[in-house]
Amino acid sequence: MVLTDFSSGGAALGTAFLACEESFASPGYRELLFDKAREETVLSAASGRLARGLPNRLSREMGAGVQLPPDPRVQAWLTERLRAAAAVQDRTDLLPLWAGQAAPLIHFRKARALFDALVAQASVERDASSSEGPSSLTPETTDASGLFAPTMFSAGGRA
Asked: 73 and 37 in contact (C-beta within 8 Å)?
């Protein structure tokens, strides 16, 4: 499958599926992934290791300039109660809001619609690559992260 050619594709797809109603993400978290005012993602150490996510109070206060514990499981244990209470209250300011750099391109709210668009795009790409040689990907068909251009997330608009 064409998508396996991209090392960062898994993160982008994870974020796209996380935004779908079928995910276990809180409603507030999913809505923030669709908030076009939040076009920035940041690297944070709030989990005990560097990860990319949407900026919020947790990422600012716990993730910036903090010395990491030797084992991320220690950080998970230290923040377990905070994360559990924040999840129950849907406090997105205190939840880790993991998201890849392509988060602003997300448009699908249903996993089936996202999956169908991915399959359709992979089919088009496969057909194009079989007629054009080893790869038909060009700077015009990919975004800065090396993923397919925004059609990967927005084909057919919000579904």
From this structure: no
Separation between Cα atoms, residue 92 and residue 148, nearest integer Å? 29
pTM > 0.90: no
Residue 30 carries which side chain, given as an amino acid letter? R
- Could you give the angle at the alpha carbon of 148 between the alpha carbons of 54 and 49, nearest 5°? 35
The one-digit pLDDT tens for each residue of the chain (159 residues) are 334 444 455 556 889 999 999 999 999 999 999 987 778 888 887 777 788 899 999 888 876 666 666 788 888 888 899 999 999 999 999 999 999 888 888 889 999 999 999 999 889 888 888 776 555 444 444 444 444 444 444 433 334
